[in-house]
Structures are given as structure tokens and as C-alpha cells.
Write a structure and sequence with these properties.
With about 220 residues, the protein is an alpha/beta fold. It is about 40% helix and about 15% strand.
Length: about 220
């Protein structure tokens, strides 16, 4: 039985990675005219977490298009109950998270992915924004980075809500863009030792919320 809580071998994924990139290029560049800004900021010398806003069905693979490496991402466990879709998501690097029941296994599962050759995308809003504006940022990523300090890369997905937003049909005339910020290293985000764990988590969360917001246009902040 497939374990959807963990990613599979990144070596196996690499066999069809470039096929996925070709499909992504056709869709994002060819259809939606996607422009990517800031790719020169990416530091591939060590594993890192990508933190991005989220307002479209197309966001997870779009992040993978902008950051050209195998990327895992967490998604709600309910989706893995759907036959066929569960296989597609799993083989695209997705792993399950149980929302709203105090489940913290996502921390260990994310660390497992990072230690096994994957980068990891986290959408810290916890869901898709209905109007494209940045929603309240949650602290899950901060809990991971407090346990396993790695750099994080802020990314802004622009206008994807108009291309295929929540409760919307696909708009092939929409134009999308991706802005990649500069990586933030543990030495820059790790709070003082004298703070409590909750205070540390709030500090890190506030920092990455700011970094994502700074990359977004005014209409999406």
C-alpha cells in the first residue's frame, strides 16, 4: 500500500522530471505568457524550503517551473482518497497532511523530504485565496525550520488567481508572473535563545510573511 505521507525516491522522479518541465513550459510560458524574475537569487548548494502565496490550482507546478529542481509539496489528506488523482499527486511530489486535528507528522515528513534530495514548497496561508490577496500566514513552516534550520526562499505568484482561481474557470487570456526573492538563511531568521518556543515560532512566521508580501504587487497584499 502506498504511503502518501512521505515522498518517494527523488532518483525515480528524475526519470520523468524533464518531461514534466516540457509540459509546464508549454502551459505556463506558451499559454499564460509566464515571466519569471529573480531566478539568479536561487542558491542550490543546500536544501531549502520555498514559501509562496497560494491562489490557484496551478500554483504547485508553477513553483516547480520557476525553481528548476525536484520539489515536494504537502497537500490535504482528503485529496489522496480520490483514486487516480492520488497517484498523480504522489508522483508529482505531493505528500499528505491532516488539517485541523493537531497532526504534526508533517514536520517529520518535510524533514524526511529535505534529507532525501527534495526541495519543499509550503504555502503558509494553508489554502487558496479566493480574491488573490495574501491571507493570514500560518506557523507550520516556522515549526519545521525551528526543528530543522534550512534556508527559505520567498516566492510570489502573480495573477494566477485570474488565470485559474478558486471557484473560477480557466482564463486563457490571463498573464501570470513569478517573482523569486533572495534566500533567507538560518542565521538571519533564527530568533534569540532566550525566547520561548511559541515566541520563536511567531518571530519566524512574521518574518517570512513579510518577505512574501514584499514581493507581491499592491493588489495582492
Amino acid at each position: 500500500m502506498t504511503n502518501y505521507n512521505k515522498v518517494f525516491s527523488v532518483r525515480i522522479y528524475s526519470y520523468y522530471y524533464w518531461f514534466q518541465r516540457i509540459i509546464a513550459w508549454i502551459l505556463y510560458r506558451g499559454v499564460f505568457g509566464c515571466k519569471i524574475e529573480g531566478q539568479e537569487n536561487i542558491d542550490f548548494s543546500q536544501p531549502f524550503i520555498i514559501l509562496s502565496n497560494h491562489c490557484s490550482h496551478m500554483d504547485p507546478p508553477l513553483v516547480g517551473f520557476a525553481v528548476p529542481r525536484p520539489i515536494a509539496y504537502m497537500t490535504k489528506s482528503d485529496l489522496f482518497k480520490i483514486p487516480v488523482l492520488n497517484k498523480i499527486m504522489h508522483w508529482s511530489g505531493a505528500y499528505a497532511i491532516n488539517r485541523g486535528i493537531g497532526d504534526t507528522s508533517f514536520i517529520d515528513n518535510t524533514v524526511y523530504a529535505l534529507k532525501n534530495g527534495w526541495l519543499v514548497t509550503i504555502f503558509p496561508e494553508g489554502g487558496r485565496s479566493l480574491d488573490g490577496k495574501l491571507m493570514e500566514i500560518k506557523s507550520g513552516a516556522a515549526k519545521i525550520m525551528l526543528k530543522y534550520p534550512v534556508p527559505f526562499l520567498p516566492v510570489a505568484l502573480i495573477n494566477t488567481n485570474n488565470a485559474w482561481g478558486k471557484r473560477k474557470k480557466i482564463n486563457f487570456f490571463a498573464r501570470i508572473a513569478v517573482k523569486v526573492g533572495k534566500p533567507v538563511y538560518p542565521s538571519e531568521y533564527m530568533p534569540a535563545d532566550n525566547l520561548s518556543e511559541d515566541e520563536k515560532i511567531k518571530y519566524i512566521t512574521k518574518l517570512y510573511a513579510l518577505k512574501i508580501s514584499e514581493l507581491l504587487p499592491d493588489k495582492q497584499r
